[in-house]
Design a protein that fits this description.
Blueprint: E1 12-15, H1 40-49, E2 54-59, H2 61-65, H3 70-86, E3 93-97, H4 101-104, H5 115-124, E4 131-135, H6 138-141, H7 143-146, E5 150-154, H8 161-169, E6 173-175, H9 178-189
Parallel strand pairs: 1-2, 1-4, 2-3, 4-5, 5-6
Length: about 190
Amino acid sequence: MPDRPHPARPQAALLDRDGTIIVDYHYLNDPAQVELLPGAAEAIRLLAAAGIPSIVCTNQSGIARGTISLEQYRAVRLRLEALLAAEGAALLDTFSCPHHPEVTGPCSCRKPEPGLYERAAALHHLDLSRCLYAGDRYRDVAACTVFAGRGIFVESRVSEAADRDRAVNEGMSVAPSLLDGVRALLAELR
């Protein structure tokens, strides 16, 4: 059997936040409730050790809906960063969409739209075709097909079977956690 070509190492991991890195409490506005999912910090550490920085790209429609203030969003973000740091992990950056089409009208940054990823690419000089996209809903990983990147659909308590099936049909990996998905990716890159 001929050797398979060695897959390219992603330039960055573009990760969803709620349900992928932290427990999804639906409109999280209290930093005391931020809870890392098991293995999430380790996954981010493993990516960093492989030269793949992690960047969060997250929809935060609670801001548009008025259930989360900008101050609360920032406090949750800082708490997440502190919890990761306590476990030796760090994010390169975070990008968020504060919109919801029913409240603010359409925008180009609400996933699955490409705006958050394009902002990350512009700021950090990324080739989006060489990035990893991971999340627990199809909208979080849909950009991997738009930009021809790699996708990991992370199964969570809010993931829907239709989203999982669509990700599988589009050639994405499916993993029970971010850590499992990252381990499989890194094993493939060896």
